[in-house]
Specification:
Layout lengths: L1 H6 L8 H9 L5 E4 L5 E5 L9 E6 L4 E7 L5 E6 L11 E4 L4 E5 L8 H5 L8 E3 L5 H7 L5 E4 L4 E3 L3 E4 L2 H15 L6 E6 L7 H10 L3 E9 L19 E3 L10 H13 L4 E2 L10 H4 L7 E9 L7 E4 H19 L2
Parallel strand pairs: 3-12, 3-13, 13-16, 14-15
Antiparallel strand pairs: 1-2, 2-12, 4-5, 4-9, 6-7, 6-9, 7-8, 10-11, 11-17, 14-16
Helix pairs in contact: 5-9, 7-9
Length: 334
């Protein structure tokens, strides 16, 4: 199921394929799409909680948007979401129309000494779609259309997997699994849009649902790679779910943070926190909605975020799902 979710294309503003797939693969009591494109779901549990609880995971991924066609048929583009230039040069892409593209710049033997020492700006790159004219290029890739990483999905090593858009299709899968079970308590679930361009869908979802408590199920950057040590690792694959106390967008509810950590320990669920204040997610918008929402972020540690080669460990995904289920019950009556 995660493979199917990751292979769907759905950048910010173009989430319809992901939304329809989720809708077709859940069993719930109420399902609707709001005016900005969020998929809003209510699933009745065995009990009605004292607090209105919402889970959120975003459907969108990073991508490229076509902004200009050169006379010779090459395409210029902008980034949709935060993408480092180094992860797109030389990569294959699939256009919204289904056509293929290659992202490139000058070959190394055409670059001068200074150019070889620096990374080009996105504005200096182009997509080669094999077109010979502006008219041909725009017929294949109209201005404002999207391009997506054309990336393989595979499992490797001791329970690792690689794919595009794991941020945040992993969170979407967790929500789908909880919905499709018989949860202990009633809850609302928001599959949000436009997270990668400023958590805009979450603002509408939280305002509409008006929860007392929200759990944002995400992926977060793990830097446990060669040459990095200590706190700079941020979090690590294989050490379980990541519960955040603060990031660049949210200072999380301290009692909810403690409740999540204690609940994980009491249920033998591996858990960790981030050792650097960095990143952000839909919590930023949800926590300040209406008169405020007590918010907790539970994340899957992920290497190489916002690239065609996101890497997670299945045991961490399992830990996030188990902790999310336990937190529904733990937060229902506080």
């Amino acid at each position: 199921m995660l493979r199917k979710l990751c292979e769907l294309n759905g950048a910010s503003g173009d989430e319809s394929r992901v939304r329809e797939f989720i809708k077709d693969n859940i069993i719930a009591d109420e399902v609707y799409t709001d005016n900005v494109g969020n998929l809003i779901v209510f699933k009745k549990g065995r009990k009605t909680p004292k607090n209105k609880i919402m889970f959120a995971a975003h459907m969108d991924e990073v991508g490229l948007m076509i902004t200009y066609a050169e006379e010779d048929g090459f395409l210029r583009f902008g980034a949709v979401g935060g993408i480092d230039t180094s992860v797109i040069i030389g990569r294959g892409f699939r256009l919204e129309s289904g056509a293929y593209a290659v992202c490139s710049t000058k070959a190394i033997h055409q670059q001068n000494k200074d150019e070889r020492k620096s990374m080009p700006e996105i504005s200096e790159l182009y997509l080669d779609i094999g077109a010979n004219s502006r008219e041909e290029a725009e017929s294949i890739a109209p201005l404002g259309s999207y391009a997506y990483f054309d990336a393989d999905y595979f499992e490797f090593g001791d329970g690792y997997l690689k794919g595009k858009a794991i941020d945040d299709r992993a969170g979407c899968l967790v929500l789908m699994d909880i919905i499709n079970k018989t949860p202990e308590y009633d809850a609302w679930y928001a599959f949000t849009v436009r997270e990668e361009i400023g958590t805009r869908g979450a603002s509408a979802a939280a305002f509409g649902i008006a929860p007392d408590i929200a759990f944002v199920i995400e992926t977060t950057t793990a830097c446990d790679i060669a040459g990095v040590s200590g706190a700079k690792k941020v979090c690590e694959l294989g050490k379980g779910a990541v519960v955040s106390y603060m990031d660049n967008g949210t200072l999380y509810d301290r009692d909810m943070y403690s409740l999540a950590m204690n609940t994980a320990n009491e249920n033998n669920i591996p858990v960790q926190t981030k050792t650097v204040i960095a990143g952000g997610n839909d919590s930023r918008a949800i926590s300040v909605s209406r008169s405020g929402v007590r918010t907790c972020a539970i994340s899957v540690p992920c290497r190489y975020l916002h690239s065609p080669s996101c890497v997670i460990k299945l045991s961490d995904l399992d830990a996030v799902e188990r902790l999310s289920e336990k937190m529904l019950s733990a937060a229902a009556e506080i």
